[in-house]
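User: Some background: our group keeps a shared notebook of sequences we're curious about, and every so often someone picks one and asks for a predicted structure to add to the entry. Today it's my turn. The entry only has the sequence so far, pasted here. Could you supply the structure so I can complete it?
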Amino acid sequence: LSILQMQFLQRKLLTIILVLASFTGLYAQEIDGNKLLRHLEYLSSDALEGRKPLSKGSSMAQKYILTELTSLNLVEPLYPDFIQKFSFEDRRSKKMVVDASNMVVFIPGTSSKKVIVVTAHYDHVGIGRADAAGDSIYNGADDNASGTAALLVLAEYFSKNRPQHGMLFAALDAEEMGLQGAKALVNDFPYPLEQILLNLNMDMLSRSDAKEVYVSGTHYYPQFKTILEKIPTDGGSSLRFGHDVPGTGADDWTRSSDHGAFFEKKVPHLYFGVEDHADYHRPSDSFAGIHPEFYKATVKLILKSLLALDKSLVENQ
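Assistant: Of course. Here's the predicted structure to add to the notebook entry:
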């Protein structure tokens, strides 16, 4: 073969590989698992003192998240300096909490004005009663540094691989105080709420002895289940459906995290999270307790879900 023929065949082969990748979801493997773990380790470190709203640790988390998000390609601000400030009344003290902060970036879609809103709360409960080991810092590694770290790598992925729908990534404050960041976001959303195609919320992703992550919400929105059921898994994390049947008490997660604020506004949602574990809301919810391989596999699974939803929902519009 001549050099020109070889070059032609190489270009042809590259085109075929790219086309196959778009159909098989090969790009879904491109998140940086090591960076994901580094994000989680920092956000759940003792230096951040449990990330209670308005604390020094919360400010450190905000600075870290904002630096990561605003360094990405394509992102646009929808609020001044990418920060949505808000105030609310503390349910316990009845005092006003002012200057809580959501960090929000937007990646425009290539073919749709509809928006997928990806959320995770970065706050936790701070410093509290010491446990038997004398540890009083509630690091909140699983709850919810894990969701926040996932949000950062997912935003990075879509800043490099532009989605068909617009994607809004919001790191939310004060979830532990009554979903306050999510309520502020839906009450001061930059677009009509009817423009939101879906809220995908992540809260507790990094540990499961059964290697299972649940997606809640398909009871109300079965059209999403049809899409998600087709997503292949690599064995490191299995997707389960449930925890969304009305009348089942604590087993119904429909209002258990920030997606609840979207649900109240009749915005469709999917909530990805693991079942509670022994370290839930305890100082022992630390980086040392996470399951790294499960966590990385779970975030890859969520990425595959977002890719499938982004593609299928455009086709069905």
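Suggested note for the entry: Residues 15-28 have pLDDT under 50 and may be disordered. The longest strand covers residues 96-107.
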